[in-house]
Amino acid sequence: MFKILQKKKLAENTFMLEVSARKIADKAKPGQFIILRIDEKGERIPLTIADKKKNSIILVILNVGHTTGRLSKLKKGDTLSDLIGPLGNSSELDKFGTVCLVAGGLGIAPIYPIAKALKEKDNKIIVILGAKTRKHLFWEDKFIKIANKLIICTEDGSKGTKGFVTKAFEAVIRKEKLNRVICIGPPVMMKAVAHISKQRVKTIVSLNSIMVDGIGMCGSCRVKVDGKIKFACVDGPEFDAHKVEFDNLMQRNTRYDKIKHKRCY
Ligand SMILES: Cc1cc2nc3c(=O)[nH]c(=O)nc-3n(C[C@H](O)[C@H](O)[C@H](O)COP(=O)(O)OP(=O)(O)OC[C@H]3O[C@@H](n4cnc5c(N)ncnc54)[C@H](O)[C@@H]3O)c2cc1C
Ligand code: FES
Q1: Residues lining ligand 2, CB < 6 A?
Q2: How far is the CA of 229 from the centre of ligand 2 (A)?
């Protein structure tokens, strides 16, 4: 059993859980994720380890459906029956030079540990955060502490620049000599960023394909990268953005949308 030590609303429909998990916290590296089950009848869902403390991990969750909805109702002191991880490969962390990190929506959480680690490696960090409105933004305070430059974009202009992150990214790529781009967000956003950076700078994306086992056995998370089948859980979740077939990812991510799930409880 894994105890919830803290729960906090971060933004519209988005909340943070601090979960006691010493062994996972010991080993977790930026870019890795866990798979959890709330109870023995629960579905398994993957969530990125967005931060960690000595004996606990921080999860940031956007309530989009059944299990994230159930998680949103849990309180401090409640428990999760299963937590496996850290899963997936950790991010490549090196001294690249100038790194632009582009995050949209919930992508703000998984990009944070990567940005922090790259700053510790002495990179110049330019961070672009995008959200629907100011009410959907979170962790600006954490990014201010590590970013050399922080650009905020909201779709309605309620904070920062009005518009999508792609507009801000186009301005940055014109002005700065970038050595690496890392982008996490909805597939459509990652596809657009990859399009802009193609033939200009190596770009890494973290893919949120639907996962079941998280250990490369079930095939649920398969994605096409460079014309080959890869499993996001064991070969990724990070891949070279210029080799990812985003349309295939987007199509596969909607494959259960029309199915009415028959829940067992
Ligand atoms: C490696 C990885 C890391 C992730 N990290 C986080 C995280 O840190 N925080 C977070 O909130 N979410 C994260 N996700 C997405 C999260 O796993 C899904 O939102 C969750 O599984 C949805 O479960 P549900 O039962 O609430 O939704 P469901 O009721 O199953 O579905 C609701 C809607 O969500 C869509 N959906 C289901 N699974 C996914 C998915 N994997 N990606 C995108 N859309 C999906 C469905 O198509 C449907 O439209 C991550 C996904 C992956 C693969
Ligand atoms: S989640 Fe089963 S193979 Fe990746």
Answers
A1: 211-214, 216-221, 231, 233
A2: 12
Confirm or reject: Cβ of 254 under 6 Å from ligand 1.
yes
pLDDT of residue 150: 98
Hey, what amino acid is at 58? I
Residue nearest to atom 51 of ligand 1 (CA): 208
Asked if pLDDT for residue 262 goes beyond 70, the answer is no
Closest by CA position to 148, among listed 174, 171, 176: 176
pLDDT (tens digit, 9 = 90+) per residue, 130-160? 999 999 999 999 999 999 999 999 999 999 9
User: If you measure from the C-alpha of residue 159 to the centroid of ligand 2, how many angstroms do you get, rounded to a whole number?
Assistant: 38
Decide: 24 in ligand 1 pocket, CB within 6 A: no
Question: pLDDT tens digits for 36-75?
Answer: 999 998 999 999 999 999 999 999 999 999 999 999 999 9
Count of beta carbons in the 10 Å neighbourhood of residue 224 = 16
List, in order of start, the domains of the chain with CATH numbers. Answer: 2-87 (2.40.30.10), 98-252 (3.40.50.80)
With contact defined as beta carbons under 8 Å apart, do 97 and 123 qualify?
A: yes
The pLDDT value given to residue 19: 98
* Omega prior to 237 cis, within 30 of 0: yes
DSSP H helical segments within the chain, as ranges? Answer: 22-27, 66-72, 108-120, 140-146, 165-175, 187-197, 232-235, 246-253
Tell me whether strands 51-52 and 238-240 are parallel, antiparallel or unpaired: unpaired
Longest dimension (CA), the chain: 55
Look up residue 196 and give its two tokens. Answer: 């802009």
